[in-house]
Amino acid sequence: MLRLETVSVQYGPVRAVRDLDLAAGAGALIALLGPNGAGKTSTIAAISGLVPATGRIMLAGEDISRLPVEDRIKRGIAVAPEGRRIFANLTVAENLRMGAALRRDATGVRQDTDRYLSLFPVLGERINQHAGTLSGGEQQMLAIARAMMSRPKVLLLDEPSLGLAPLIVARIFDFIGQLKAEGLTVILVEQNAAQAMRFADQVCVLASGRVSYRGSPADLAGADVMKLYLGDAGM
Ligand code: ATP
What we know:
- By secondary structure, the chain is an alpha/beta fold.
- The chain has helices spanning 40-48, 69-75, 92-99, 106-119, 121-125, 136-148, 166-181, 193-199, 217-221, 225-230; strands spanning 2-11, 14-24, 29-33, 54-59, 62-63, 77-80, 154-158, 185-189, 202-207, 210-215.
- The protein has a domain at 2-84 and 154-234: Rossmann fold (3-Layer(aba) Sandwich), CATH 3.40.50.
- The strands form two sheets. It has a six-stranded mixed beta sheet, sandwiched between helices. A four-stranded antiparallel beta sheet has the order 2-1-4-5, covered by helices on one side.
- Bound molecules: adenosine-5'-triphosphate (ATP).
């Protein structure tokens, strides 16, 4: 479904991502782990088109590397960004509509809205409330639901657990697991390695823009995660 071939991101003299290869089939979840500054967010931004990248990005067999963000969304890439970035001054309902802004199937949009409101009843209860007044956990639910409103094939999730209580994190990950079970491909950036590995098919540890470790969660369970983070694992 999604394939990255030697993708690199450079900001002036800083090489944030170096020759990254990644492949995720339909319904697969790849967890991108690694310390601050490893290049995880830049990888997500390269896939969504928010930053320029070299190399090739293929979505369902089509090269999307040179397409603008809007065309990537139309083809099935969605992002729930770090820090949620919900529209604080818009209501929950308006935020969800923004997620569906490029769709023309009004009936489908209504069905999807109902679906996410029933999956997250707390959002339904706050449908006309300004999103800025929601709790952190509720805002994260809204950020994911908003991303899902574009009916993506691939969901890019940047640190959904950031700053949230363990119980809320577990609920959010259960939801991600459900979406994956329905066939959604997920690229998940996470500091919370334990939660990420609950649903991951593949774990990819980045260090200084390169892959320092790649394997299944079971393989990683036997490895010294701290060493990997510190870059002792080699290539
Ligand atoms: P974190 O977990 O802290 O978000 P990360 O793994 O997501 O880290 P990136 O945010 O992708 O890492 O950053 C990778 C490198 O690129 C870092 O050295 C960072 O300082 C640099 N960088 C990121 N964005 C920019 C930018 N817009 N301009 C210049 N350098 C940047």
